[in-house]
Amino acid sequence: MAQSFEVTPDGWITDDLRAFRALTDHAPPRPWSYWDQICCDVHEPKIVIRMWVMGLGLTAAGLVLLVAAAVTGYWVLALGGLLIFRGLRLLWIWLFLARLAVRSFRAHPVATAVVGSFEPHPIVPTISAVGRATRPSGEPVAVGTAVLLARAIEQSGTPAEVWFIDDPAAEYRCVFAVRTVGPVARVS
């Protein structure tokens, strides 16, 4: 998660201005690729960078142990080659999630709603927060955002307008910008 916010001239608060512009300046299908997703993920050190490092590290360690077993003749080292599967599994998980994100980003429209509060995500409470928002039509929708952005909204003590990717297949619609009704809170 980016550690700072950027504020647009019309008051939207976002943690990735480049993605914000791509979403708001282009109608689907949007120009968004895996490289764009990698550039976005670089700002996510708590999960994505660790996943990359662990995936590549375990894969490399497994390969080194297999080569060492072949060179030295100590075939017990070949058991370390099982690390390759652990590493490739982590890289596959990232690829699967990146594919979902790229598809959602490219294909789905954006929408607004008003959210009053957020709660920790049931699976990843230190990374994401979720809440119930109400669309202008009155229809409720489940939304999710980064904890840092959710804290800023919570500390302001007022409802906030959220802008999200309206992917009907998602359990929680991805919030990419907020505009608080009250003053913007400082998050420590």
Which helices and strands occur, and which strands form pairs?
Elements: E1 6-7, E2 13-14, H1 17-25, H2 34-41, H3 45-72, H4 83-107, E3 110-115, E4 119-120, E5 128-134, E6 140-146, H5 147-156, E7 160-165, E8 173-180
Parallel strand pairs: 6-8
Antiparallel strand pairs: 1-2, 3-5, 3-7, 4-5, 5-6, 7-8
Note down, in words, how this protein is organized.
By secondary structure, this protein is of the alpha+beta class. It folds into two domains: 95 residues, OB fold (Dihydrolipoamide Acetyltransferase, E2P), CATH 2.40.50.140; 68 residues. The protein contains five helices and eight strands. Helix 3 runs antiparallel to helix 4. The longest helix is centred in the N-terminal third of the chain and has 28 residues.
Features of the shown structure:
about 190 residues; alpha+beta; elongated; 2 domains; OB fold (Dihydrolipoamide Acetyltransferase, E2P); two-stranded antiparallel ribbon; about 45% helix
Oligomer: single chain
CATH superfamily of the largest domain, called what?
Nucleic acid-binding proteins
Low-confidence residue ranges:
none
The first-level CATH class name of the largest domain: Mainly Beta
The number of domains is: 2
Please bin the fraction of helical residues.
Answer: 40-55%
Proper CATH architecture of the largest domain: Beta Barrel
Q: Radius of gyration in whole Å, from Cα?
A: 20 Å
The helix/strand order is EEHHHHEEEEHEE
The CATH topology of the largest domain is given as OB fold (Dihydrolipoamide Acetyltransferase, E2P)
Strand order of the largest sheet: 3-5-6-8-7
Q: Which sheet architecture does the biggest sheet show?
A: 5 strands, mixed, barrel
